[in-house]
Amino acid sequence: MRQILKRSITPAVGLGLLALAVAFGGGTAVGQSLVTTSQVANGAITTAKLANGSVTSAKLANPGKYYYVGTKAVPFRNGWADYPKSYGYARVRFYRDVVGVVHLEGVMYGGGGDNIAFVLPKGFRPQFNHAFVVAAGTGNYTDDVDVYANGTVYINGTNDPASLDGISFRTR
């Protein structure tokens, strides 16, 4: 440890350490002592009390848990459905990671495009509207997938199937 501290820390290492501190809830706790924490079953910190008396919290229920589209809670709309399992692609699903970023995954087909595919529930919606270009069809095609602040996931284009892999955004 002494050898590490004797060397100067590069800007890249310093930024990396700062990013880790913020990612683990240290954004409000940098330079302050942690007194107590409350944790949920999966280990995600929900509240942390600091030595100065302030309390910070993360309102993430079940970070990393997958939620599937096509269920009663989040139904497909306008004829969209999961791409057939026999092709080996993931079902359409989404999850929120421990820092509050929502990720969409899976391949869907059948809706014909230019309509609403499904609506994300509260807590999984972006603060602002987003537009993403995704792989679509069975060739060199792309579609535009719009994710609106009201949770609507809208497919612009007529090339099915449409992949949601790689779509990520921050929640409100």
Describe the structure.
With 172 residues, the protein is mostly beta strands. It is 12% helix and 35% strand. The protein has two domains: 2-57, no CATH class; 67-170, Immunoglobulin-like (Sandwich). The chain has helices spanning 2-6, 11-26; strands spanning 34-39, 45-50, 55-57, 67-68, 81-82, 93-96, 101-105, 107-109, 115-119, 130-136, 141-147, 152-156, 162-163, 167-170. The strands form four sheets. A four-stranded antiparallel beta sheet has the order 4-6-7-14, with no helix packed on it. The protein is globular, with a radius of gyration of 21 Å. The model is unreliable at 1-9 and 27-46 (pLDDT under 50).
Highlighted features:
172 residues, mainly beta, Immunoglobulin-like, four-stranded antiparallel sheet, 2 helices, 14 strands, 35% strand, globular, disordered N terminus
